[in-house]
Amino acid sequence: MGQYRGAMSVKFYIPRCRPVLAALLALGLLLPTLALAQTPPALPGPDIALRLPRDLSPWGMFMAADIVVKAVMVGLVFASVLTWTIWFAKTIELMAARRRLRAAIDALGAARSWAEVTARLPSADDGAAMLVRAADTELRLSADAMAPDGVKERIASRLERLEAAAGRRMIRGTGILASIGATAPFVGLFGTVWGIMNSFIGISKSHTTNLAVVAPGIAEALLATALGLVAAIPAVVMYNMFARWIAGYRALHADAAAEILRIVSRDLDRGAFEQRPADRRRSVTAAE
């Protein structure tokens, strides 16, 4: 009777333990898979680890870059320094020239005769002083031919040439900004293409696609593109800024020339230049 009860209890507990046994069996099958999943990936070989740069700062990437990429970066840095140097020098030159022209235009507007103009404006080699000196030279050369229309036409021709020369002189140096703005992005792109090409060559030699091997070379290559943009964007902005400033400077030159022509026309109508016998005698003697 006791044996019968023991057998019945075993048969009763076996169905109730089946879920537990199934869970233990599944856990036993999953443990090797989990252990493999927890295993870290294989590290690159010692040669690859030695070649990986530890410093990924801009200077570290520059030092680890290829010689061609280094040359591209150095050229772009030099172009950026040249851009800011031109901006500094040209800004000072333009601001000083415009200030002198405005002061000269005010003096010309307050003058009532040509004698006051020659007395007020200094004999400098720039700005309105050159215009006044050119007009006075033409008046001296035309002392024996004081036809108002002819004199004004010859003076206007001299002033136009001086205005064009002043514009060419002031625009000097801004062409470098245009060249840098147009070519720097493509130079940086060349360095990027060269660096990425070297990265793929390194992948083929090391027989690995580990991102730790590829990333430093790509970062160095992209640094060249970044330097190209750093050099090109300020150059384009500065070139456009100087184009507007130089146009305003030429407009001030035209205003000064118009003031000079008005004063000369006023004195021609008054007959003021007919009272310069010394100039007339000098021109006649030179002609003989």
Q: State the helix count.
A: 10
Summarize the helix and strand pattern as letters.
Answer: HHHHHHHHHH
> DSSP strand (E) fraction?
under 5%
- The residue fraction in helices comes out at over 70%
Mean pLDDT: 75
Low-confidence stretches: 1-14, 26-50, 277-288
Number of strands: 0
Shape: rod-shaped
For the report, how would you describe the main beta sheet?
A: none
Total individual domains: 2
Radius of gyration: 42 Å
Structural class: mainly alpha
Distance between the termini: 163 Å
Q: Multimeric state of these chains?
A: single chain
Topology of helices and strands:
Blueprint: H1 2-38, H2 46-51, H3 58-64, H4 67-110, H5 114-120, H6 128-141, H7 148-171, H8 174-206, H9 211-270, H10 277-287
Helix pairs in contact: 3-9, 4-8, 4-9, 6-7, 6-9, 7-9, 8-9
Briefly, what is this?
The protein is mostly helical and 288 residues long. It folds into 2 domains: 1-39, no CATH class; 46-287, no CATH class.
Question: Explain this structure to me?
Answer:
The chain is mainly α. It has two domains: 1-39, no CATH class; 46-287, no CATH class. It is built from ten helices and no strands.
Features:
288 residues, 10 helices, rod-shaped
